[in-house]
Amino acid sequence: MKFEHLMHDFPRDSEAIKNLSDFFLDAAQKKRTVSLSFDRLFEIANPTSMATLARIIQQLIDAHTLTQVYRVEYGSGIGSDFKSLSEIPEVIYDRDGLEVIPDVQNTKAYYLFHGENAEV
Amino acid sequence: MTTLSQTGPDAYGRMISIFELLKQTSSISVISGYLKSKGLSFSAGSWDDLLTKRIEPAFSEHKISLDELMELLRRAEESGRQHIFLYEAKPDVAGQMIDQATVMQKLSAKNLEHVAASPLIVTDAPTAQIVDVRWEDGRLIVKIVAQRTAMELDSSVQNPDGTIDKKYKLTQKRVVHVFRLHPGGTLELRVASLSSGTRYTEEITSLFAMVDFLMPLGNFKPIVLRKAKEYIWVNREALKERLRVVDSVMKNDDGYAVRGISMSDGGNIGTNEATTQSLDLFRGDDGYCDSLNVYFLPRGEPAFPAKEIHVILPGTMNEFAIPAKCSHVEFEYIFDEIRAFNA
Questions:
Q1: End-to-end Cα, chain B, rounded Å
Q2: Interface probe, candidates A49, A66, A81, A108, chain B, greatest B C-beta count within 10 A
Q3: What is the Cα–Cα distance from B259 to B290, expressed in whole angstroms?
Q4: What is the pLDDT of residues A61-88, one digit of tens each?
Q5: pTM for this one?
Q6: In chain B, which residues have pLDDT < 70?
Q7: Averaged confidence pLDDT in chain A
Q8: Which residues sit opposite B320 in a β-bridge?
Q9: Does A32 touch chain B (CB under 8 A)?
Q10: Among residues 304-333 of chain B, which lie with CB inside 8 Å of chain A?
């Protein structure tokens, strides 16, 4: 995991990047696979702005540190994950077997970190 | 200080408009209580009585003013039945955004300076509009009135051929949203609760767009309420005289969750050892309290708050909700408690 280049690109957010680095280092040492919402990443990092965090996340995706998935939610954070928007079907079924129509409101990005594969 | 002219040909009409909005947002007992506190005749069995026998005479005799009625309306419609989203700006930036001269200049550039001089009384707002800009205790308040359209089933008829005809009617509902910016940098965005659904992202975006010239979203970042949730959960025993927890979700970042719920809204999972131990075991080192449903309890004599106040702290990082209407004093109490728990 290389966070030094992020420090260089986002000097005002060096503290936030360190917070993220510490979190992912801990997850890697414990070989945890974690799935994080934007809100959760915001909370862990405590960045100067949401826009900056979005750019940091994009760099982590580009560097294959994070993998983005799309979750169609039918409960608080509960739902089906898809690797891309094009994979989302027109209808999914919740755990009571009820139809859920994926839309902008119920589809949310999650970010996966595979601790077992990460270089510590 | 915003004021409404007590005189002029439309003063009576404005009084009636405020009264009609009070009918929608307040109660006879609240208005009667206010009249009583002013030493005026106050008893009324109906809204008509309240208007014709109490408000109209008091208004024509200058014993109650439009400003006082407007203040009653503000208190009635600006507190409760809301989802509150908290943000923070740097204090110096907040100071610039609150500065009265700067705000007046920006309002003037948008031809909106009149809403700071005298709040608009808007009963219908097909297009969302800023109706009130004012300062209270150094805090800048911007109020927006909007309209939501809901589709309600009007009738359903089964035909002989097995088909069903359903007729829906569109109903319009007036809603009020409030921004309140504190000198320290805290911003509350109080969004009127949706009657169905829990997602406010689009509404938040459009509301911020409306006040972008006064409070650009880029100046703020969300206030994470994790500490408040953790504090309430960890200190539930010490807080038992102040609140009870009926629903709590613990999550971890591995993608799992455990929920402890009281089957009755009158329960308290803090008193059930099996539930709390399960939740605490899951929370462990890597888990966290994701969401809570709590009731703040009446305390003291006379009791305050007057009745239990339901507060939701959902999974969204910077949101809490007060599902039912409450008084502005009760709102301030809840707001202060949540902020203190989050400190």
A1: 32
A2: A49
A3: 10
A4: 999 999 999 999 988 778 999 999 999 9
A5: 0.90
A6: 1-9, 198
A7: 92
A8: B84
A9: yes
A10: 314-317
B 143-202 near A (Cβ less than 8 A): 197, 199, 201-202
Nearest-CA neighbor of A60 among A115, A5, A116?
A5
pLDDT on residue B8:
65
Burial class of residue B195 (count of CB atoms within 10 Å of its CB; 0-12, 13-18, 19+): exposed
In sequence order, the β-bridge partners of residue B192 are B82
Write down the pLDDT at residue B274.
Answer: 95
Amino acid at B79: S
Q: Do B314 and A76 touch (CB under 8 A)?
A: yes
| ipTM, interface predicted TM-score of the complex | 0.88
Which residues, other chains included, contact B224 with Cβ-Cβ below 8 Å and sequence gap of 6+?
A42, A43, A46, B317, B318
Residue type, A18: K
A77 sits in the region (left: phi over 0; alpha: psi -120 to 50; else beta) called left
Return the structure tokens found at B295.
């009731």
Place of tokens 């948008």: B110
One-letter amino acid for residue A31 of the chain: K
User: In this predicted structure, what is the pLDDT of residue A117?
Assistant: 80
**Do the strands B257-261 and B243-252 form a parallel or antiparallel pair, or are they unpaired?**
antiparallel
In eight-state DSSP terms, residue A105 is T
User: Which chain B residue lies closest to A111 (C-alpha atoms)?
Assistant: B253
What 3-state class would DSSP assign to A95? coil
Would you put residue A93 in left (φ > 0), alpha (ψ -120 to 50) or beta?
Answer: beta
Predicted local distance difference test score (pLDDT) of residue A36: 96
User: Does the CB of B39 have a partner CB in chain A at under 8 Å?
Assistant: no
HEC secondary structure over chain B: CCCCCCCCCCHHHHHHHHHHHHHHHCCHHHHHHHHHHCCCCCCCCCHHHHHHHHHHHHHHCCCCCHHHHHHHHHHHHCCEEEEEEEEECCHHHHHHHHCHHHHHHHHHHCCCHHHHHCCCCCCCCCCCEEEEEEEECCEEEEEEEEEEEEEEEEEEEECCCCCEEEEEEEEEEEEEEEEEECCCCEEEEEEECCCCCCCCHHHHHHHHHHCCCCCCHHHCEECCCHHHHHHHHHCCCCCCCCEEEEEEEEEECCCCEEEEECCCCCCCHHHCHHHHHHHHHHHCCCEEEEEEEEEECCECCCCECCCCEEEEECCCCCEEEEEEECCHHHHHHHHHHHHHHCC
Take residue B121 and report the two structure tokens written for it: 């009384």
Q: Using the beta-carbon criterion (under 8 Å), do B199 and A105 form an inter-chain contact? A: yes
Two tokens at B248? 């709590």
Q: How far, in Å, are A57, B44, B189, B226, B339 from residue B78 at the CA level? A: 37, 25, 11, 26, 19
Q: Does B254 touch chain A (CB under 8 A)?
A: yes
